């Protein structure tokens, strides 16, 4: 504990270019909350760890303490470390800065996509990653929690080392990961079933329709987010590229069909509705933008095969408008898309 507190003092007061601070390797990320740095833990045989340092502001401090509580619970229930949720190693409060020590992981799936020129993952890669993510989030749900902020940035590779190959057809270098194991991170907004549910959750592009319509939400909003993530892995790009709620709903309709009338009837967002339908002008500039950038879901398929069919069937069931009809993660992990993984596992044990 004293080691980390001393290290934090260095992080807060020194520049990273200082040659005398060899415990701090680099900055892994920065955001409104603070920063994450990679450190060497000399008190533990030189183990490398990630130190998340939260700004000394009440709203960020509260979220950090909530994350600590959630991770203590999740990690304690995962005795054999089978769950693909990030492991918290330690935490402390340094003069109002909540600091959380995590196992060191690799790049986020978003950062890997970005550094690889937004080249989509293959269907087999998606299958391997999606199964782990579904099982991790199912574990979260079984512990009466909703993550509420699932997105490619919050799914990290355990190790993002890769091989580089030249694609002569595309005339570009492409990175191929050596290890597809992933973990879910960032539980600062995770919410227990019994806790107050704020009206708006999730990062915009992964936000479920019931959240936008302020109809209330539950664990099924995580499933919608996962559907958005899987199609992004398949395309290499975000499906719903917008910052406007009504335009977002119009994009959903363009991809998935009409929003159920009973959802539009119940919403308090009356400016979104006209005669129990989405109030949307297809001929406006925004309407033209939606038609240009979105198309029916199945039209995004790049190949006709059972693998692609099954992946899109899984995505479509995850992105069911009505949360009461949306696929659960118990159902998701039993989906035929994941059968090849189970067959390979059985072959290894045969």
- Please provide the count of β strands: 13
**Class by alpha and beta content:** alpha+beta
Low-confidence stretches: 13-22
**Helix content, binned percent:** 25-40%
Our measurement of the CA-to-CA distance between the termini, rounded to an integer number of angstroms, reads 47 Å
Number of helices: 12
- Classify the beta-strand content into a percent band: 15-25%
Write the layout of secondary structure elements.
Blueprint: H1 2-13, E1 24-31, E2 34-41, E3 47-54, H2 58-77, E4 88-94, E5 97-103, H3 109-115, H4 123-142, E6 145-146, E7 155-157, E8 162-167, E9 172-177, E10 182-184, E11 191-192, H5 209-212, H6 220-235, H7 245-256, H8 261-266, E12 273-274, E13 277-278, H9 285-293, H10 306-318, H11 329-332, H12 339-349
Antiparallel strand pairs: 1-2, 2-3, 3-5, 4-5, 6-11, 7-10, 8-9, 12-13
Protein name: dual-specificity kinase
Binding site for ATP: 52
GO molecular function, one term: protein serine/threonine kinase activity
């Amino acid at each position: 504990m004293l080691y980390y507190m001393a290290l934090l003092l260095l992080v807060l007061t020194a520049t990273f270019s200082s040659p005398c601070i060899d415990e701090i390797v680099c900055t892994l990320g920065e955001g409104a909350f603070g920063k994450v740095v990679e450190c060497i833990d000399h008190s533990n045989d030189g183990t490398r760890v990630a130190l998340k340092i939260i700004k000394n502001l009440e709203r960020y401090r509260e979220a950090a303490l909530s994350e600590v509580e959630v991770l203590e619970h999740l990690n304690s229930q995962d005795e054999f470390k089978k769950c693909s949720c990030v492991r918290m190693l330690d935490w402390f409060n340094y003069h109002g800065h909540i600091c959380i020590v995590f196992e060191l992981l690799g790049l986020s799936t978003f950062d890997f996509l970005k550094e690889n020129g937004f080249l989509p993952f293959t269907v087999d890669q998606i299958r391997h990653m999606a199964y782990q993510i579904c099982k991790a989030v199912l574990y979260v749900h079984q512990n009466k929690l909703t993550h509420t902020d699932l997105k490619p940035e919050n799914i990290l590779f355990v190790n993002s080392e890769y091989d580089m190959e030249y694609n002569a057809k595309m005339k570009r270098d492409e990175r191929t990961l050596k290890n597809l194991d992933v973990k879910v991170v960032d539980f600062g907004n995770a919410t227990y079933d019994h806790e107050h549910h704020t009206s708006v959750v999730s990062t915009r592009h992964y936000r479920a329709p019931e959240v936008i319509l302020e109809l209330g939400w539950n664990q099924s909003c995580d499933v919608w987010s996962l559907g958005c993530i899987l199609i992004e892995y398949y395309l290499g790009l975000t499906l719903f590229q917008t910052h406007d709620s009504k335009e977002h709903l119009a994009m959903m309709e363009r991809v998935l069909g009409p929003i159920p009338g009973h959802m539009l009837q119940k919403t308090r967002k009356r400016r979104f509705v006209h005669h129990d339908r989405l109030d949307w002008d297809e001929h406006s500039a925004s309407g033209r933008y939606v038609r240009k950038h979105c198309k029916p879901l199945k039209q995004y398929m790049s190949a006709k095969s059972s693998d692609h069919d099954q992946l899109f069937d899984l995505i479509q069931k995850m992105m069911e408008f009505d949360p009461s009809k949306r696929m659960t993660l118990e159902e998701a992990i039993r989906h035929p898309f994941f059968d090849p993984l189970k067959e390979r596992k059985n072959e290894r044990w045969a």
